Amino acid sequence: MVVMPSIRINRKVCFAVLFMGVVILLLLRTNLKSDYRVRDANIAATSLRNRFDSLKNKDKKDGLIQGGQHAQENAVQIVAAVLVIACNRPEVQRCLDTLMQYRPSEKKFPIVVSQDCGHKETAQVIENYGKRINYIKHPDLSDIVVPGASDHLKGYFKLSRHYKWALSQVFDVMHYDSVIIVEDDLEVAPDFFEYFEATEPLLDKDSSLWCVSAWNDNGKADYVRGNDLLYRSDFFPGLGWMLKRTVWHELEPKWPAAFWDDWMRHPDQRLERACIRPEIPRVVTFGKTGVSQGQFFEEHLKYIKLNDEFFPFTKRNLTFLLKEEYDPKFINNVYKSPLVSVEYFDSGQVMPALSVRVQYESEDSFVSLAKQLGIMDDLKAGVPRMAYMGVVSFIFKNLRVYLAPPRSWRGYEFQE
Questions:
Q1: Which residues of 229-240 are buried (b: 16+ CB within 10 A; e: fewer)?
Q2: What does the alpha-carbon distance between residue 398 and residue 223 come to, in Å, rounded to a whole number?
Q3: What CA–CA distance (Å, rounded) separates 190 from 307?
Q4: Any bridge partners for residue 155, and if so which?
Q5: Domain with CATH 3.90.550.10 in the chain
Q6: Fewer Cβ atoms within 10 Å of its own Cβ: the N or the C terminal residue of the chain?
């Protein structure tokens, strides 16, 4: 028989081992709870941070969207401010009424009326429009001393002074980028605003353009055809015209004391730039009396045709008016037209052509031919009214006529 050895267990050692085991278990449990708390805290912090970032990003996104929407709305809303130059003509109501009637949006075309002269009756008429307009008054009503004691010219000096102040207000104080200038004796066409909204972007696209005008000096009823026709013109037309702030900042430092419109036609200001103008005018003047004492009104201005049928210019591609595209086509149309003498129109002959060309050789011959054909015969700074590259386009006896210089023409002749 095999006898197993006996094992003697020390009670103290056993107690110590048990105690150490309990301690280890407690430590493990504590660490485990701590890990869970750390994990839970990290999860909670991460969740809170994620939620905060999400909310922050959402607010930022919403802000960008809203800001973008507001910026887009502002960009779309304002096309150009309309600056009405007024003085002592209560009939400005006729001008303002047609502007109000045809204005498509107050936000697109805010109206600013600037009054000089301090004429109370005119002021009352303007005030009746209330918040529909922004009414400003020229603060300088002082008299002007005219050089050479030519008191009959004071009106031209005061008008130029008023123009400079009013344009400074709309561009430099109100910060409009584009402004349409309308004097108080103009009535506008139904598509006046449509025309300017469509053409305004062209001023940014083409540095050879410096204004858009609603006027055609040869716009008498029998001399125009087609309310969709637009042209480039080297002649500054005025009478309902739009310019940009960049051009104003160029002109403002040297603005003249008088005769601002003829000053605009000087080569030093025009710098070989052109304006856009319509075949059929989008404004007419009803001001028989004024600073110019009704010059040309009875014999010419009262016969100007105002367009009466709306044309949707904003739905038409007008890039054909940009110089690079316009010039070659215009020159081709002019000089491919058969050359005729002025006697042709009374000869009874019928030429199978859509247009004809009458040629002038000098300023004197232009004046003579213009008189015979019934269009405006004067020149300003060497440029015939409404001419482009020396060519004046109009309708005569139901035929398109180009009164043009020889094809070898090299530019306008101007002498101080």
A1: ebbbbbbbbbbb
A2: 8
A3: 8
A4: none
A5: 79-321
A6: N
CATH of domain 79-321: 3.90.550.10
- Is pTM beyond 0.85 here? no
Cβ(176)–Cβ(80) below 8 Å: yes
Other beta carbons within 10 Å of 6: 5
pLDDT, tens only, 195-241 = 999 999 999 999 999 999 999 999 999 999 999 999 999 999 999 99
Distance CA 135, CA 113 (A): 5
Cα-based angle 190, 191, 193 (whole degrees, multiple of 5)? 110
The Cα–Cα gap between 326 and 324 comes to 6
**For 86, phi and psi rounded to 5 degrees?**
-125, 160
**Residue 277, Cβ neighbours under 10 Å: how many?**
28
Backbone φ, ψ for residue 95 (5° rounding): -65, -50
Question: Catalytic residue numbers?
Answer: 261
CATH dotted code for 338-404: 3.10.180.20
Residues 6+ positions from 159 with CB-CB distance below 8 Å = 85, 87, 116, 258, 260, 291
Tens-place pLDDT, residues 262-303: 999 999 999 999 999 999 999 999 976 655 545 577 788 889
pLDDT at position 145 is 86
- Residue 96 in contact with residue 133, Cβ under 8 Å? yes
Please report the pLDDT score of residue 25 as a whole number: 47
Indicate where the chain has its CATH 3.10.180.20 domain(s).
338-404
